[in-house]
Amino acid sequence: MSHKSDIEIARAASKKPIQEIGDKLGIPGEHLLPYGHDKAKVSQEYINSVQGNEDGKLILLTAINPTPAGEGKTTTTVGLGDGLNHIGKKAMICIREASLGPNFGMKGGAAGGGYAQVVPMEDMNLHFTGDFHAITSAHALLSAMIDNHVYWGNDAEIDTRRIVWRRVVDMNDRSLRQITSSLGGVANGFAREDGFDITVASEVMAILCLAKDLKDLEERLGAMIVAYRRDRSPVYCRDIKAEGAMTVLLKDAMQPNLVQTLENNPAFVHGGPFANIAHGCNSVIATKTALKLCDYVVTEAGFGADLGAEKFMNIKCRKAGIAPSAVVLVATVRAMKMNGGVAKADLGAENVDAVKAGCPNLGRHIENVKSFGVPVVVAINHFVTDTDAEVQAVKDFVAENGAEAVLSRHWELGSEGSADLAKKVVETIEKGEADFKPIYPDEMGLFEKVETIAKKIYRADEVIADKKVRDQLKSWEEQGYGNLPVCMAKTQYSFSTDPTQRGAPTGHSVPVREVRLSAGAGFVVVVCGEIMTMPGLPSRPASESIRLNDQGEIEGLF
Fold it and tell me: Which class for 536: exposed (0-12), middle (13-18), buried (19 or more C-beta within 10 A)?
């Protein structure tokens, strides 16, 4: 039986004018800034006006470690949001925007799939409302101003060997990871080593997603460290006088984007840091606004719970003063079989033993999430090849680990297929068992925070870091940054730093390659193993299959 592609389903959607979606939330039309007929930004004035409203319940959606078999985290986020509305609850979802790099590379878009999608799918996975372009431009402005400052006399006494502000572009381009800039003679400035990260790894992206308003945004931008002097004292963005112009470029990007699901339920899509190299959550301003407008808000954290959920709990919740009432952990039978050693080509055949062999990955995530004091519901994202025996094996394993698993068929059936999951989540929240707490205190030392995550979440035996890394962390503590949380940059495919180690590995080490201080965002990035902050394209990128057909419609985008 053939199924329609995601883009075919999205193209056939019966969308409502965005003003009608705003009406569902009580947002007056004058506070919606339309981008066409089906998407709009919500004004800061309106956001300020609802701050006295009571908060709804926050549901975090996370997943097991991703596999090539697919887990469908965003699909389940959308499905659960639709399911909650289907059972009579006032609910909306908050997800991240898609980066062009993965869209044209290997991962694809971030709008869900099947009959659990956010629309307009094509717009969301391409230029959308221009937020990422604004972030890239603001970042590039600071890059230009740093080199220009050095060129015109260097009043801030920047040591050009210690410029730490890298450039960004929203595309996977491995050739830009390490470059030499300002070549060509005196007129072009002072030659130096430089490099690019992908836009989603920019500190500007992190700040946009953590700032509460434009004033906070400008202060955070000004606090970014861009370089060091010869005496090792930091040079800030505010020393270059760039934060005001950067804020102007980001003025509209700060406003959350309102769109709709296939079932015409509201969704905020705003911000997009990756969870393997950044903090992996949508914007604080979108999540907190949604909580003022709805009884239930479903938000997701990137990749597996060892990355996205850990950072959501330890960074976003800490910074925003929010706490989840429940966590939904997504798993698939296919992924369990792959964790159990089955090749992707053989996933269609029933193999209950492989499912059982792969379940320890799920079990560890359940245990980890519970360590934050939040109840867990497991969503089994249904694939048409799943058998009853395989599904039951997952349910039995989850029950043995003190949680409950619910089969959800939202991809195939939309909200009717996710109604049972929605009911279980509401039932779990109404028990009132959540007692959220981060796994480390602010006052713990930076290296001890890294060790805490490595040992408690990854189950590593040790963290390996040379003297240079340890001394750098100590130096930042002495400068007053010791109370910051840490943001682990690590492969998403394994609890370890080795992407080939599936399941629930133990006895491994976490090697720290470098550390970066994101003083404006308010965390320390810890780069582990071989993780790259500028991805590369695969041997056959998705872009080879993306084109316009004879009707002028996009094909190949997913």
Answer: middle
> Given 128, 132, 268, 383, which residue is catalytic?
383
Q: Does the active-site annotation cover 212?
A: no
* Distance set, CA 30 to CA 42, 264, 399, 501 (Å): 9, 20, 50, 53
Told to judge if 180 belongs to the known catalytic residues of this protein, a careful annotator would answer no
**Bridging pattern class, strands 192-194 and 179-181:** antiparallel
The answer to whether 318 is a known catalytic residue is no
The conformation of residue 308, written as its DSSP 8-state character, comes to I
- The CA dihedral of 535, 538, 539, 542, to the nearest 10 degrees, is -130
Report the predicted TM-score, pTM, of the whole model to 2 decimal places.
0.95
Which backbone phi and psi does 98 adopt, to 5 degrees?
-90, 145
Q: Of these residues, 39, 73, 319, 424, which one is catalytic?
A: 73
* Cβ(80)–Cβ(410) below 8 Å: yes
CB 79 within 8 A of CB 116: yes
The residues, any chain, with a CB within 8 Å of residue 237's CB and separated by 6 or more, are: 142, 221, 222, 223, 224, 225, 226, 243, 246, 520
Angle, helix 131-151 to helix 243-250, in steps of 10 degrees: 160
pLDDT tens, position by position, 189-220:
999 999 999 999 999 999 999 999 999 999 99
Helix (H, G, I), strand (E, B) or coil at 514: strand
On the question of pLDDT at 558 being above 90, the answer is no
Q: Which of 15, 89, 96, 337 is catalytic?
A: 96
What is the four-CA torsion angle of 58, 60, 61, 66, rounded to 10 degrees?
A: 170
The SS3 of residue 40 is strand
Contacts of 402 (CB under 8 A, 6+ apart): 366, 370
383 catalytically annotated: yes
Q: What gap in Å lies between CA 29 and CA 20, rounded to an integer? A: 9
What number of other Cβ atoms are within 10 A of residue 404's Cβ?
14
Please say if 303 is a catalytic residue: yes
Which residues lie below 8 Å from residue 35, measured CB to CB, with a gap of 6+?
Answer: 41, 129, 257
Q: Give the model confidence (pLDDT) of 415-438 as tens digits.
A: 999 999 999 999 999 998 999 999
Phi-psi sector, 513: left (phi>0), alpha (psi -120 to 50), beta:
alpha
The DSSP string of 317-333 is HHHHT---SEEEEEE-H
Describe the crossing of helices 352-370 and 388-400 by its angle, rounded to 10 degrees.
Answer: 30
